[in-house]
Structures are given as structure tokens and as C-alpha cells.
Amino acid sequence: MRYGYYPGCSLTGTGIEYGLSADAVIRHLNMDMKEIRDWNCCGASSAHNHDPLLSIALPARNLALAEQQGFREVAVPCAACYQRIKAAEVAARDPLKRREMEEVIEEELSGAIVARSLLEIMVHDIDDSALAAQIRRPLQGLKVACYYGCLLVKPRAIAMDEAENPMTMDHLMERLGATPVEWGYKTECCGGSLTLTRPDTGVQMTAEVLKYAKLAGADCVVTPCPLCTSNLDMRQGTAEKKLGRSLGLPIYYFTELMGFAFGLPMKTLGLDRHFVEATGLLQSLPVPASG
Amino acid sequence: MGTVMVSTTVDNSEDFRRRLKEVYGIDTALCYQCGKCAAGCPTAFAMENTVRQLIRMIQMGLIREVLSSYSIWACAACETCSVRCPREVEPARLMESLRIEAQRAGLVSDKTSKTFHDLFLQSVEDHGLLHEVGMMARLNVLTGNLFSNAEFGPAMLAQGKLHFLPKKIENPEAVARIFANVRKKRGEIK
Predict the structure, then answer these.
(1) CATH number given to A3-120
(2) What distance in Å separates the CA atoms of residue B166 and residue A146, rounded to the nearest whole number?
(3) Which of A38, A198, A283, B96 places its Cα 20 to 30 Å from the Cα of B146?
């Protein structure tokens, strides 16, 4: 099988809409993908603040399991998990480092398996016509601010797209019929990693990202990251208070918008599990003439 | 983690800079203080010393001041500085290294962050996974903010985002052994 799916801890908890919608879309597209058996937490975002070896060893066990289970690539929806697993893959390219990692995880690593974000897989591995054939409800007229956050595109060694102006998700949204807005905050940090330890600092950053999405004329924000999403969605009320203005921006995972465009039921995609109401905007989109 | 004697660890600043190079691959001598890192830093507003200033302080040997500063814990690890640094100092990885070294030296100024990371890793060591609810509840108890984020509880429960019992992977011992092996390599016994 080609892809070993690594859901990560958030996708059954705070990021449950991401988990539900990713599952639904993967199944709908009949992708050659299956969950890696017995996967463990990648350690984000604490192991790399504790010990450099632990930070690459925890994700490396998942790479080793994926290899043993016959997968050629690891598909990672969560941006934080992606950054850590990719960092382990990059580290394992150095034979000395690889030996050290193998010793600690007590498993063998070939150094051949590749970690990829679910976003890049959806955009690069599914061709235009196959995707177009699935679209039942094009996102006509929906103005989206594509918010990539930090962890998919920084630092350079692990980046799946350009750090200052990534376009992968913009292209996907165009293919779904939506209109991505131009804005400067695509990869400005939302403060997600500080929300529990320094909430005042975090919410100021969240507010900035949301403010600029609104100023750019977006109807909503779309992300590939459960940390960013829970932050931008759950703390939008706090950010509104900070800004002294209302925003009302639904925050979607790109997989939710894919699933909606494919015509999948909103409940299946988890669209009813948001803090900022997320179904009304999609229901208000023009229905294409049948036939 | 045991506490390392500060006097022997960081008094000699040349030793500390060598350690940064050998253990973390960070060479602060490369920095020519252009300030691009701090200019793009989204948390600079919350720091008493920006990342550029911290690098200068390390160059000057003010190691203890750097390790005990709040600034290193205000960093959101967004990596913007590392992408923009024209000298490839990798300031974000430096900040991460400083957080690790501050813990080793017992100089952590932001106890909430330290508690958060310890609880996070304890959950992973016990279950192989992060149990979000358990970690949050313990963090609130240990930091004395019992109702922090509790306002989101009812909605999250309705959305199916809270699980009160931790799940375990099939083979949590394998993950616990990774922690033990890393400790052994570091010469620490827990």
C-alpha cells in the first residue's frame, strides 16, 4: 500500500472535524491509504523543547512501523505532527544519526520512507480531472483566506511549500470553485503554541491573523492545522473582544471544504462541531443547475 | 530530570557556545546583528529582550541572564526568524536549545511552560499518546488556574472533542522504552 495514514492525537479530540472530514474525503476518493497500526504521539510540541534526541525518536518509531507495515509514504494531516515526522525523516538521512535513533527506538529504519502532508498529497497526487469529476457543489463565490500557519512551511528543511507566500491550498481552493483572497498573513503565527502557557500573548496574535483575513475581504478562513483551527475558531470570541469588533469568520479545514464540494453530508464532515457557526455560509452558496 | 550545577555548566561562556555548536549545531558567532529575526518576530512585543538581543548577549557571555529570561519562553517556535536569517544562525532552533538548557541548568523562569511540557511528555510516556483533557486538567491544578479554559468545556463536550478517559496505544511499553533509552544515553536515571 502506498500511504500509511498518521492521524495524530488531535484528530479524535480538539481537531475531530479534521479527523472526520479527512476520513470521509480519503474514503470518497478511494485512496490507497490505511492507518498505521499502533502509531504513537509525535511529541509535538513538547519533546523538542525537552531533548533533541527524544524529539526525533518519538516520530521515528512511526516511520519504522510504517516501513514494517509495507507503506511507502506517511500521510500526515496535522501540521504539527508533519513538522516533527518530517524532521525525523530528514535526520534519518544521516547514517550516524539514524543509528542513534535506531538504538533508542529499538527498531530499524531504512531511511527510505517519506513523510508528506495530507494537503500536498491531495493537491499533487490527485489530478485535476479526477478531482473535477467529484465536484457536486462547487464553492462558487466563496472568498477564502488560505491560512497555512507555521508548521507545514517552516523551517526550510521540512517545508512542503514556500514559507512567505505558499500557494498549495490556494490552488486546491480554486479547483473546488472558491476564490482565494490575497493577503499577507498566510504564514504569520497564530500563537497556537502559547494559548495554554501565555494566553494573553497568544490571543493578540490570533486577533491579528483574523483581523487581516477580514480586511482582505474573506468570508472564511481555511487551514491544514488542528492547532491553528482550534485557536482561530475557539478563541475568536476572545479575539473579537480584544479587537473591539465582530468578525464572524468560520474556520474550515481544507478537507471539510473538499468534502462539502464533493456533496458529502455536513454531519459526516463534522461541520456542525465548530465554535463559529460554519454550516450557514456553505448553505448560502448558489446551488448549481442540475444536469 | 536532575538539576545541573549552574556554576559548572554556564560560568565559562566559551564552553556554553561550544556546547551550543556541538549538541545543537548552532553557531552564534555567525550572527552579525542585522535584526531581521527580531523584525519579523510575532512575539517580540511580549519579550523583554528580542531574539537578536539574546544572541548578542550570548556572544558577550551573559549566559545566565539569557537562560533565566522570560523571553525564551515567549517564543512561539513559529520559525519565521530561521527562514529569514541571512547567516543561517537558525534563531528558532537556538531558542529551543536555550529552553532545553534552561531546564538542565534549573533556570526556568516560566514555570507554567515547564509544567505544560512535563505533563505533556508524561502523558506520552504513560499512554503512547497525548491525553488532551488529562493534561489540561493537571495543568490547571498545578498552576493554580483551576478554571482556565473551562468556559470552552460544555461546547467542546457537545462537539465530541473531550475524552475523559485516556486511550492507550497497543504497545505503550515501546514508547516508555524510548524515554528510558534517551535518559540512559543522557546519563540520567529516573
Answers:
(1) 1.20.1050.140
(2) 34
(3) B96
